[in-house]
Design a protein that fits this description.
This protein is 0% helix and 48% strand. It is globular, with a radius of gyration of 13 Å. The chain has 122 residues and is mainly beta.
């Protein structure tokens, strides 16, 4: 069974950091680009970042550029999202998703994790 599992979410104060992980089981990550999306209450799901299957290409939403870093370790079947200088507006459920190439269109992703909650609050 193909599965993505996110972890690493939690409650953090503004200015703090978190590292999210997206672990794949049942398939190899080598053939998939992996994206992170987030969805805040009452808002549409938005793309945060994406990394190509080789890791050679990454992209970020303007709102997180310079603060978030995406990386991958195919041997560990895991993709990471390092989030620094967190702001209250980063509060959302964060999801990882897999498909062949990166796209900002959530509906085109084949596989999704269940999500992990990130709350930025003092």
């Amino acid at each position: 069974q193909l599965q993505l599992v996110e972890s690493g979410g939690g409650l953090v104060q503004p200015g703090g950091s978190l590292r999210l992980s997206c672990a794949a089981s049942g398939f190899t990550l080598d053939y998939y680009a992996i994206a992170w999306f987030r969805q805040a209450p009452g808002k549409e799901r938005e793309g945060v970042s994406c990394i190509s299957l080789s890791g050679g290409s990454t992209n970020y939403a303007d709102s997180v550029k310079g603060r978030f870093t995406i990386s991958r370790d195919n041997a560990k079947r895991t993709v990471y999202l390092q989030m620094n200088s967190l702001k209250p507006e980063d509060t959302a459920v964060y999801y990882c998703a897999a498909r062949g190439v990166c796209t900002v269109i959530a509906g085109l992703y084949n596989y999704w994790g269940q999500g992990t909650q990130v709350t930025v609050s003092s």
